[in-house]
Amino acid sequence: MTTSASTAGRTEGSDRPASDRPPAARLALDGRTWKEIAHLLLNLPVAVFGFTYVFTVVLVSGILTLTVIGLPLLAVCLLGARQLGKLERSRSRALLGVRVDEPSPLPLVRGGGMFQRLWLALKDPVGWRTLLYDLIRLPWGVLTFCTVLVSLFVLWPVLPFISRGLTNVDRAMVRGLLSPSDELERRIAELESDRGVVVDTAAADLRRIERDLHDGAQARLVNLAMGLGLAKEKLLEDPDSAAAMVDEAHGEVKLALQELRDLARGIHPAVLTDRGLDAALSSVASRCTVPVKVTADLPSRPAAAIEGIAYFTVSELLQNVSKHSRARSASVDVWRSEDRLLVQVRDDGAGGARLEGGSGMRGLAERLGAVDGLFLVDSPVGGPTVVTAELPWRDRKE
C-alpha cells in the first residue's frame, strides 16, 4: 500500500507535522540529542539573563512609577521583552525544532498621541507573556543544567531519555507562552487594517465634500455676489437691467440652496436622524430611476453609526441599479436577526456585478468589514443581482 507525501510526514492520531515533533528517544546520542543537550545546558545562562532583566524591570519601574518616567520605562522594557522572546523562539527553532510563528507587531497609531501609544505598549500581551516566561525559567534553568551535567558523567546510558523528557517541557513552555495568541493576534491585525480603511474613507469623504463645495455652492455664491454687485451699480442708471440681474441672482440662490441641501443629505440626511431607516430608504428609493419596493422590519432603531452605514450602503447600491443594471424593478429589505442587522438589495437587471469589478463595490465591502460586517454579492450573468449586507446590531442610545 503506497503512502502519499502528504500523509507520510504525519503520525497517526496527531495533526502536528512530524518535523515539529521530536522522534522517540534512543540510546544512541544522535545529532538531534546533542542539540537538545546543548539547549538544556544553555538554559541556565539564558535564564539568569532573562530573570535579571525581569527583576530589573519590575523593581526599577515599580520604584519610578511615582515619577513621570516610570510608565514610559516599563513600556520600553516590554518592547525589549518582545526581542527576548524573539531570541528564545530562534533558539528553540534551531535546537529543538519548535516552529512558532512570530507575533504581530504592535498596531500603528495613526494620528494618536503619546499617551495612546504608551497605553498600547503597556497592555501588550506578548511582552507580558515573555516577562512571565523569563521569570519562571530561572528555577527550571538551574534544574535542567544540573541534571544534564550530572547525567553526562553518571547517567550516560539514559541521557537521551532524560534530555528528551526535559526538552519536551521546554517545547511546551515555548508554545504556551511565546507563541502568538492566534485569535488575539488576528484581531489586532484586523483592527489595524480596519482603522486604516476608516481613516482613508473619512479622508476621501472630506475631499469629496470639499470638492462639491468648491465646484458647486461656493462657485454659485461667488457668481451671485458678482451679479448683485453689478445690479447695485445699475440700480439708478438702468433699473430694468438691475431688476433682471436681481431675478437671475434669485434663481442662483435657489440653485445654491438646493446644492447645499443635496450636500447635507449626502453627509447625513435629516430624514434619517428624525424618522429612521424606513423613511430614509424610502426617500432614496424615490430618486431611483426604476421602481423600488422598500420593506423595513425593525423592532427598534439601531445605533446611529450602524444606521448611517446601512443607509449609505443602500444609497450607493441603488445608484448602481440606476446606472448599470438595466433593471425594470428593484427591492430593498431590512430586518434584524438576533444581534445582526441585515440589508438586502435585489434587482432584475442584467447581472454580472463583481466585488473586484470596480472600486464602488470593493469600497462598500471594506466599509462594512471595518465594523465587523459582511458584504455578499450574488450576480450571475443575466441576473438577478442580490447584494446582502450584514452589520452588527447595537442598540441606539437616546
Question: What's the number of helices?
Answer: 12
Compute the number of structural domains: 3
- Strand percentage lies at 5-15%
Radius of gyration: 33 Å
Largest sheet: 5 strands, mixed
**Unreliable stretches, pLDDT < 50, 5 or more residues?**
1-20
- Distance between the terminal alpha carbons, to the nearest Å? 70 Å
Q: What would you note in describing this structure?
A:
- There is one protein chain.
- With 398 residues, the protein is α+β, with helices and mostly antiparallel strands.
- It folds into 3 domains: 16-180, no CATH class; 196-267, Up-down Bundle (Single alpha-helices involved in coiled-coils or other helix-helix interfaces), CATH 1.20.5; 271-392, 2-Layer Sandwich (Heat Shock Protein 90).
- 64% of the residues lie in helices and 9% in strands.
- The protein has 12 helices and 5 strands.
- The protein has helices at 5-8, 31-64, 70-95, 114-122, 125-153, 159-178, 182-234, 239-267, 270-275, 277-286, 304-325, 359-369; strands at 292-297, 330-337, 340-347, 374-378, 385-392.
- A 5-stranded mixed β-sheet has the order 1-2-3-5-4.
- Strand 4 (374-378) and strand 5 form a beta hairpin.
- Helix 2 (31-64) crosses helix 5 and helix 2 crosses helix 6 (159-178).
- The radius of gyration is 33 Å and the shape is elongated.
- The N and C termini lie far apart (70 Å).
- The relative contact order is 0.07.
- The model is unreliable at 1-20 (pLDDT under 50).
